[in-house]
Input
Amino acid sequence: MSDEQSKNEIMVIQPNVEAAVSTMHAFQQLKARLLDPGDTVEISGKKYIKRSGWRKIALAFNISIEIVSVEREKIDNTYIVRVKARATAPNGRVSEEVGVCDSSEFSGNIKSSYHNVEAKATTRAINRAISNLVGGGELSAE
Output
């Protein structure tokens, strides 16, 4: 086989199924023991992890978070903010996710200021980045 052929060869990695199952089981146990009732909320009969829960998971896995970008715009009377967050694990794995929020999502006592819209978009982006990095595959409550 030539060097060119070996460069184009497709590699199939066989996962260690038992180790993967064990790891995901351990993650489920971690969530059950780590999260308090206040870290989740029930919506339409399903539990979702709130910001405090995702921050605890990030701390447990020693995940660092950074905001990569923030885009703000105003269309008519609606504020829209898009935030990209990056979660990085100690082993170098990275997950970048986007959170979007607009001022139409706010009602009642919470004002639809740029600050609140940006805070919610940031929370969504960070929660998604953490969830994807740890293999949670879950939606956040926010």
User: Anything to note?
Assistant: Residues 114-134 form the longest helix (21 residues). The chain has a mean pLDDT of 88.
